Amino acid sequence: MTSDMIWAPLFQRLKTTTGADDRDLEALAALPFTLRTFRENQAVLRDGEQPSECCLIADGFCFRSKTIVDGRRQILSIHIPGDLPNLQNLHFPTVDHDLIALSDCTLAFIAHKALNDLISQRSGVGDMFWRDTLVDAAVSREWIVNVGQRSTHNRLAHLIVELRERLRLIGRVIDNTFEIPLTQEQFGEAMGVTSVHTNRILRELRIDGVLELQRGTVRILNEHKLQELAQFDGRYLQMSPSS
């Protein structure tokens, strides 16, 4: 991958959501990084580790998760190209969750020192990162509501619409078709239900002509029905600098 390809999804998102200054983005792109590839289900970071780098997803998908003592796992968030899923470790030295490759993926690792030096030199970069972490917190709040209060059909619809809107922002949605490489078990872990229940929901949504999921690709069949189920209000994603 070229350097431009690595930074492009992040810059596309930051320009839309923060009105990022081109000079700040150029300074960010000049930072040294190390590319590492991970296989599907491979751990990028483990709970308790103390990383000295932040990672940028250049290609592929990752998720955050926590596993309780009996082995059950909750997926906490899903991360797409352009995301910085452990930006908080600039200030929190110890990771408090796992970061796992959802698909084969490529990540760029940037040293904390290099990022902190840049932030001290360019306050606009710090402002961009601060806004990014606030949006990340807003997404976490919405996921709590999704798992805690919405019906299972509403949960799945909301999750799919959220991911579509985030993927659309970086140009990864074509004709309402997009990649979400979650297995049925992983959908269940994100929604707090079993894989059997997830299978039933997906089957019903396909029969009802709402959407279909095949081999990690979602195709929206009826936008109106999907929106009715999702009850989606995307303000929490802060898709524009003034939102």
UniProtKB/TrEMBL annotation:
GO terms for cellular component: cytosol. CDD domains: CAP_ED. It holds the Pfam family cNMP_binding. GO terms for molecular function: DNA binding; DNA-binding transcription factor activity. Residues 150-224 form the HTH crp-type domain. Keywords: DNA-binding, Transcription, Transcription regulation. SUPFAM superfamilies: cAMP-binding domain-like, Winged helix' DNA-binding domain. The keyword Transcription regulation applies. The keyword Metal-binding does not apply. This is Crp/Fnr family transcriptional regulator. It comes from Bradyrhizobium manausense. The lineage of its organism: Bacteria, Pseudomonadati, Pseudomonadota, Alphaproteobacteria, Hyphomicrobiales.
